[in-house]
Amino acid sequence: MSQVGTWTMKVLAVTVGLILMGVNLGGCGGPNYGRHELEICLSEPLKGKTVEVDVIGVVNDQDVEMWKSVGVTKYFSAGDSTRQEAVGRQQFKYSAGDSGCKSVSAQDSVWDGAWRGARSVVIVANIPFLESESGITDPRRVVVTLQKGSWENDKVQIQVGESGVRVLTPQKQPK
After folding, report:
1. Is 82 exposed, middle or buried (0-12, 13-18, 19+ CB in 10 A)?
2. Is the pTM of this model over 0.85?
3. How confident is the model over 121-145, as pLDDT tens digits?
4. pLDDT for 6-45, tens place per residue?
5. 48 by DSSP, 3-state: which?
6. Rg (CA), the chain
7. Are the beta carbons of 119 and 59 closer than 8 angstroms?
8. 3-state DSSP call for residue 109?
9. Going by C-beta distance under 8 Å and a sequence separation of 6 or more, which residues neighbour residue 145?
10. What are the phi and psi torsion angles at 45 (to 5°)?
């Protein structure tokens, strides 16, 4: 083989190697997930009322689907095993005298423990006078992605109101 042919083969090998390295480092890793500050506030009409809100870190898509199917009324009933066994459940109880807002900071120890590797959090609220067993679309439950870069702000704000739970922070449009 001539020197030109050998040189061409070396250049080709280096080029292919650089392309493969770029694919491995940049494009195929999938989404990254991380900690977010979560602020959960009651709407004005609910301030001063007793409201229970649970926040549960969810590591995989199968568990997200399971949480979407949990009946919220049953979940908050006395002695419900789903609620009792929810690993890393952060329980907030609002009542008279509260400011109406509670939060989980991005530095909270739950991120290093039960929520390590979480891809989503499920927020479930026991809202007085609101009962709905409409399965996946129960307004008392919302699933919040923890995918990095999904939210317009560092803090994800959630409002618990008389009509249900909703995320107030705008979600970024996928690119």
Report:
1. middle
2. no
3. 999 999 988 876 666 789 999 999 9
4. 545 554 444 444 444 444 444 456 789 999 999 999 999 9
5. coil
6. 23
7. yes
8. helix
9. 33, 119, 120
10. -60, -20
